[in-house]
Design a protein that fits this description.
Elements: E1 2-11, H1 15-26, E2 33-37, E3 53-54, H2 65-83, E4 88-89, E5 93-96, H3 103-116, E6 121-123, H4 125-131, E7 142-145, E8 149-151, H5 153-166, E9 170-173, E10 177-181, E11 186-189, E12 193-202, H6 208-214, E13 221-233, E14 244-247, E15 259-262, E16 269-272, E17 276-277, H7 292-308, H8 313-319, H9 326-336, E18 345-359, E19 364-365, E20 370-374, E21 377-381, H10 387-401
Parallel strand pairs: 1-2, 1-12, 2-9, 5-14, 12-21
Antiparallel strand pairs: 3-8, 4-8, 5-7, 6-7, 10-11, 11-12, 13-16, 13-17, 13-18, 15-16, 18-19, 20-21
Helix pairs in contact: 1-5, 1-10, 2-10
The protein binds flavin-adenine dinucleotide (FAD).
Length: 407
Amino acid sequence: MSLKNGEIIIIGGGIVGLTIAYQIIKRGISKNIIILEKENNLGLHTSGRNSGVLHAGIYYKPGSLKSKVCIEGGKRLKAWIKDRGLKTNPCGKIIIPTKYEQDSQIDLLFERGLKNGAKVEIINNKKLKEIQPNTNSITNRALWSPNTAVVNPLEIINQLEIELKDKGVIFIKGSKIRKINKKENKIHTEDNLIIKYKYFFNCAGLQSDRVAHMCNVGKNLTILPFKGFYWKIKNNDAFDIKTNIYPVPDLSVPFLGVHFTPSGDKKNIFIGPTATVAFGRENYKFFEGLEPLMLISNLFILSKQYLMNKNKFRQYVHQQSLQAFEPFLIKSAQNLIPSIKLSDIEISEKLGIRAQLFDNKKMNLVDDFICTNDENSTHVLNAVSPAFTSSFSLADLIINSSKLNKE
Ligand SMILES: Cc1cc2nc3c(=O)[nH]c(=O)nc-3n(C[C@H](O)[C@H](O)[C@H](O)COP(=O)(O)OP(=O)(O)OC[C@H]3O[C@@H](n4cnc5c(N)ncnc54)[C@H](O)[C@@H]3O)c2cc1C
């Protein structure tokens, strides 16, 4: 049994935990920070496995936390990356309706984008084809977002780790939390460490609800993991894809639909991610991380959602859940690039799992970020997309709303 002491403990070394540590130091709140990470390396979960898109703030309901932090966070992350000479692909993004009835959503997204402060333009097929050959809008309208960019998420995670270590942050890796003793302000880990804290932030991503439940916080909230498979284009010469190409999403479900994304280093064009029910929160390979009990309970929740058709959930199941199967995926891809065929794509090793929160009381999928304060702790739940883009501003918002800031 070994005892450690930290003024501030951050559980989880993903982008959320790292940027909170970064901002606490930058703002002079504390220099005594321990980051507790259950893996031996950072970036093994969502922050190292996402699309790397720096979103421009178009989709989010004005007034939501997402709308408040996405644009500013994206600008700050871009500047941070530029200062360090890391790679960015400033390729922009187009959003294309794939059904006639989606045409009015272009106006809604345009309005939302403007209200949120994003740069957006409604374009016709002529301009669309100038920006991105081989595409077509069935309604002759699409949305252009010139400020969307793509980065390499792992590069950013690694750089943050280096800088935080330089500033004196202690990383304890390979140590998973077992329990939290709130009376004594102690965190116990599975490898028999006891860490005394003054304040802690729960930034455990896919496991954040379980850590919150250890403190009796968010008992009505459960993470439903959704798997995001990616494919990639074998040879981009035939398609000349240079920008992000997204379908108009169904805004009643929190998934953006299968899209084309150039990588941050411009070497690959990915197609994905899907949003398929995962058999475990860390079920990256078929037999790895299986959680049969969780799966049964999640399938029960999802079937209920399907029957009640809450927030048009049936539409999600019909349109998005089947896209892990190639014939369905290629059909969605062809809605954006009509000439693409199954033989043009191959499955990629890239695979991420979305920590989607479900509210058992309200019986719905939670759309916005949630950060809940308890005695001497803050729990960050539902840090789904665009939490990577927003990270620096989200970190400030979390710190500002925490009890740490009010001491
Ligand atoms: C497929 C996919 C694509 C995405 N694309 C984008 C995108 O293009 N742009 C964008 O802005 N966002 C995107 N996102 C969202 C973004 O990746 C996440 O919002 C963000 O990475 C969440 O970061 P995090 O720090 O909360 O979680 P994580 O990166 O998962 O970090 C949590 C950390 O906590 C650790 N941990 C868990 N439990 C414990 C424990 N008990 N003890 C100690 N440590 C623990 C884990 O090991 C992990 O390292 C995407 C997400 C997915 C799934």
